[in-house]
Amino acid sequence: MHVIAGNLFAISDAQGDIEVDPQAPLGLFAYDTRFLSHWVLRIDGERINALSRDDLTYFETRFFLVPGAASHYVDADVSIIRHRSVHDCFHENLTVLNHSSQPAEFTVRVEMASDFTDIIEVGQLRQRAVEVSADSANQQLVLRYQRDRFVRETTVRSTVPAEVDERGMTFRIRIAPDGKWETDLHVSVTMGGEDGRDLRADLQSHQQIVRTGMREDLAQWLDRAPQLVAERKGLEELYQGSLADLAALRYRPLSYRERVPIGGLPWAMGLCGRDALITCLQTMAFTPELAPATLRMLALMQGGQLDDSLDEEPGKILAQLRYGETGAFSDRASALYYGAADTTPLFVVLLDEYERWSGDADLVRELRHPARMALDWIDEYGDLTGDGYLRYQRRNERDGTINQCWKDSPDAIVDAHGRQPAFPRATCELQGYAYDAKRRGARLAREFWGDPTYADRLEREAAALKERFNRDFWLPHGEYYALALDPYGEPVDALASNIGHLLWSGIVADDRAEAVAEHLVGPRLFSGWGVRTFATGQRAYNPVGTHLGAVWPSDNALIAAGLRRYRLDVQAARIADGIFDMAQTLGGATPGVIAGYERDLTTYPVQLTTSCRPQAWSSGALLMLLGTMLGLRPTGDNLLVNPAVPEGFGRLELLDIPGRWGHSDAYARDRSTERRRRLR
After folding, report:
1. How far is Cα 318 from Cα 279, in angstroms, rounded to an integer?
2. To 5 degrees, how large is the angle CA 211–CA 213–CA 215?
3. What are the Mannosylglycerate hydrolase MGH1-like glycoside hydrolase domain coordinates in residue numbering (predicted)?
4. Is 295 helix (H, G, I), strand (E, B) or coil?
5. Burial of residue 66 (number of CB atoms within 10 Å: 0-12, 13-18, 19+)
6. pLDDT by residue (tens digit) across 473-522?
7. Which of 330, 345, 368, 601 is 20 to 30 A distant from 398 in Cα terms?
8. Is 678 exposed, middle or buried (0-12, 13-18, 19+ CB in 10 A)?
């Protein structure tokens, strides 16, 4: 059970209790640190059990509880309501209800503790010396951890008198017949050290912040997005849920005033360059405000030097930004880390795409230098063997990311026989991103930077890359593109979903697009729910392998958009239909990844335990698929609508789509609806 507000989130069990679990990130977290690791409610020494839960919004929920075993539920004389919410802090209102006709006395106890664990160490706990200060006079408990200038502090306050000890707070209460007792428990988190950021919120104002500020912000966010009117049952609710999930997954990095998308709950609750860029590309027609904030933030953090420990190079765009202890002390490469080869070309792609939608020429001029540095990086540092291909090989040999593409698990890049190629590796989709970045960079240079010579050069380089790529990566015996090239130019012959990204970038030769599409929707790659990351029949295939057979909605959204780019509408519709079926079958937030089992085998989408949920680029994937079905594309100062809607969707209306044209509407019907209309 979770509540979330940007980077601050709390995960508990079904009763609302928090206890350390090495297998799960239970606790109150903010900026990659666990500020509460133990938060357990007892009534007269008994643990409590849940009757039901009411998830009001992403940032608040209520638990309805009774003490004791399940056999006591029907005649319980006492019940408890826990109303929990988060903002810049954690707040819990406890209400105890006496259902008897006699006065009742209870001992209410809340156990409290923090281990200040870095979230990436949740499965490998280590002891930290935590200072505890109990203050009954002020009804507060302070938990503090310090390592040099790295300081984290948790302060718990109560609005009513409590007996405070080093392990929690005790309330000895008397309740009148059919009466109630309540207190507000307020948990503020403070970050000291170099940044000196204090996230404490005023105790009296917190409920008002949640009641007005958070709800008003969510309402405004939803109001700014286009309105969907859909004939297909449940689609409007799925759309609204995706927008709400994206609202939840926004945060302000320290010393930055604008909100940017974070990766996903619980493992990627920080700025991840790849996730943020793709989320912005997915949601351009729906929540365009994410893009300029993300572009400015990534430009601010752009690499400026050679640093092997950070995998940093001049012009390179950030892979991730973390605030936990392990990163602060370089225990792992996690604080400011650049180990990704795709973020840099995607930065240029997003800048160009945002201008096409918004007409914001000022931002393009403002970010001219970072964009040119990114384009220069592709050739100066990305071409590691001098053959003109974008490659990666980690500089940080101790704990840098091994595979620095979107499939970043250590075993993700293998051939059909399961053999891993040598480094540096040139995965196919990286070449598509580089091609797209050069073409888009050429447009920016010619139209906004006043540099036609540079534009001509980029266009020549893009054309040469496309020709070279279609020669070296194409596998004529299989009629698909190799997953990668090894450093000697030999193809890594695995059939994988990466080939769909090539359609999205436009690097595929026109006469080969249909063959690529048939693989993507063929039985080896398409599970029925979506396109697998790795095709069946290959040695390394594993339906529960994150990048070796599982299905990612984000991956599928790019693939479907690529298919429509090449006018392969039937195949795109099949993928969109599968992903929407999966999302509606599961209900709630769209997971980051599901297993790649055949749909006919399981009849239900199987979630992976490592999956984030909600995840920004999964929620964004549903929006991108809507835009793809409607065929939304900016053309000058107009919005082009060219629908291709799967059967069963009926009529779709997307109203008030924002862009340089102001606001526009899009209408579409699926083919079966059109046929029925003609028959009538």
Report:
1. 15
2. 60
3. 415-585
4. helix
5. buried
6. 999 999 999 999 999 999 999 999 999 999 999 999 999 999 999 999 99
7. 345
8. exposed
